[in-house]
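Run log, item B.
One chain of 798 residues. Sequence copied directly from the ordering sheet:
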Amino acid sequence: MRARKKKKKNLKQSRMYYAIVILAVAFLILVIKLMYLQIIDSTDQYSRQVDQLVEEVPLKASRGNIYDRNMRILVQDSSAAAIHVIPLEVKEPEKLAKGLSEKLNLDYQEVLDKVNKTEDDKVEVKNGVKKGDGEKVVAGIPEGVSFLDGTVYAVPDEIKDPDSAAQVLVSVLGMDYDDAHEVLTRKENSAVLIEGKVDNALAREIKEDQAIKNEKGETKSYNGIELIEDKRRYYTNGNFASYVLGFTGQDHTGLTGVESSYNDQLKGDDGIIYFQKDAQGNQIPSQTKIIKEPTQGKDLTLTIDSNIQMLAERGLKSAVEEWKAKSGTAIVMDTKTGEIIAMATQPDYNLNDPYAISDYYSSKHAGDLKDKSKADQLSEMWKNPAVSFIYEPGSTFKAVTASSALEEGVVTPDTKVYCSGSININGVTVNCTGSHGTQTVSEAIANSCNPGLVQIIQKLDPALFYQYVYNYGFGKQTGIELPGEEAGIINRPFDGNGEINLLDYATFSFGQGLATTPIQLLSALNCVVNNGYYMNPTIIGKGSSQQEYVNNQLNGPKQIISSDTSAEMRNIMKNVVAENSTLASLAEGYSIGGKTGTAEKFVDGAYNSTYYVTSFFCYAPVEDPRYSILLVLDEPDPSAFGGTSAAPTAINLMKQVLDYMGGQTDSDTQIQQNAITVPDLVGQEKDFAVKILEEKGIKYKLDVKGDGDTVISQSFPAQSVYDPNTELVLEIGSQSSENGNKVTVPDLNGMSIQSVNEIVTGLGLNLKVTGSGFAAEQSVAAGTAVDKGSEISVTFKP
């Protein structure tokens, strides 16, 4: 009896033991499964849950504004729309793709592909599937299908052959073919970007064109179109300072200019809207949205003065056209600080439409653009020649040679050199522009005498001279805050004995055999006249956040030559202007010194006597320079020289700068300090345009045409100087209206021929001039809308 009880007890204990073991194993399996789901597979699980239940819509942050040195706004954001399409909601894909491609000038097939985009996230095909069946499905559809925890998933965008894949699901899982095919080809249920930065009026027009209505005429849907608030960068004056400012891409990120180099400061932080959606992916209206507000970027202040920039661009464009040059660059620098007050290049491009290559640019750069793709052509156009154009400086470099020799004491301004019209170096003849005979070093520089400079450089130890060249900044980037800067080229050629090649060293004296950029050369020559102090060029104002003012270094700016040598060089270069009757006449009444430069271009391995680069450096006042200017013309007419092509424009610009900065009023070409520049408003929304005009204090009138609210034309062209006694007329309409090719004729009464020509041609009209003096009569009344290309006859009277 006792043994039987003991046996029962042991059996009971065994059963409990096995039960505990089974429970422990089950618990362990459960723990492992939970660990797998929560740790190993958590990311994928969470991703699927978020995608199924939460929709994210980005909120683009406004970029910071960009101002000139006088806090005049140059760049700001304007409201725009980003056109998205939700492919799952598209009912008529061909109609949608056709409308979008035509209205936005996009490729039809590319738009159609986006409209028909299939889902690229996992979607559930069927749950409760046995392991064996799941493995068969994966084996039968090797790409785009997975099996996990009894559920078959598919990524439609990865399915190569939906028809065959659907047959597998039918045969293995017993699904209906249509249901299987639908899930394997399911369209994307999230917004797909078609085009950003679209004008609001145009975006609304596109959306309305796609409206699908019911029998009662009520709108059922907009064929999958969704408009999301976007930002568009607005450049107040279009082409103004295009190479300095740069522009942004579709993602609102800076691509060129300071928009690129200071993108981190300007861009701000984007926000996000989160909202809950149902099983079909539709937003649940009753749910509260969670909004992470965007943070606007920081503002940026430049050293550019808008009025001087305008003067530089106008003067440079005239020089380029007069001398039929390929391009031109003009830079105005504050001699004492290195601040860039103006940096102009012609031809330029429109920052509000940076992907359009103008006919003017194409005609000037036909050789550079030939046989290149559109992308390469645009890349060529966006390069900033002021920092990227590499060329031989020619005679402007003679100031560097002379200052180095004077500083070392190997010559004085009165040291005699001789020019017979040429000089022989190692059996090679180096010619001069004339036979100057015996002359002083000062006279040799003023005469731009090559043999004279050769004799000067021969007195300098090559190693020592090259050190001066490096100290002046040649052969390295200046560090100006603009992208794409080149370093230039400094060669130190040696002969067969390992010695410096004397011929190459000799030609180095007059700027041949090295390559520089305009900003590099200006900085070096500025140092020559600035008591020998090299000032790092800067385009960013002192007040801009995150800007360390480059010249306020612990040890101060670097001094290359003494103030005495600098004073001697200033007097020498003063004679370059004073002893040239043409230049002296241009500079009459102003204390201006300078140096001309004319250099043959090195083309296909040899110097070409057809292609030149002409240039002129000037500074003023001579006794204590405040401003330095370098003007460069690339490939002007073969008859051009630095003194005939670049110098007159540079001297005239210097006079205007002195007048403007000094507050003088005796120059008929100057712009007053309180002048207002007319902004480029064509293509902007009415409300935004009005805001800009009110900010600038410009009187305006709206001429409304039709139902649109976009600026179709303006009565004064961008970058012209606003006359407070006039009224700017904005024509308001639809971008697609018939008025899109029309402009409103302004009131020209009392204006000079030059002003009338700028305004009329700026509006795309042709001007016919009769008489001289000031406008007294015009053939088309002010306020009349005419087609672009129409002729306007204006009679001028004294």
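Observations after the first pass:
- The radius of gyration is 36 Å.
- The first strand starts at residue 54 and ends at 59.
Flagged for discussion on Thursday.
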